[in-house]
Amino acid sequence: MPGRVRAATLHHVYDYDLLVIGSGPGGQKAAIAAAKLGKRVCVAERRHMMGGVCVNTGTIPSKTLREAVLYLTGFSQRDMYGAS
User: Fold this and answer.
1) Whether the predicted model's global pTM rises above the 0.70 cut
2) Domain residue spans in the chain?
């Protein structure tokens, strides 16, 4: 019938011991610990990349960029009060 909305029911069966919501540092550690204990683990992430903000856009990339710049400029090879 036109205009009539019919609700579709989806029935999925999942067989996991643990569902980890978010793959940031805490979720990653929880998933690894459970997997090491032989559990079946599912990780749900809202983004298309695993790892959370810390790994993909936040702390770790900015520290890596900083270290790369310091290395490439030879900053650690310079004297205390100027370039040698």
Assistant:
1) no
2) 18-73
**7 φ/ψ angles, rounded to the nearest 5 degrees:** -80, 130
Secondary structure of residue 66 in the 3-state scheme: helix
Residues of the chain with pLDDT under 70: 1-8, 10, 51-61, 75-84
Terminal-to-terminal C-alpha distance of the chain? 84
Q: Which of 30, 23, 24 is nearest to 54 (CA)?
A: 24
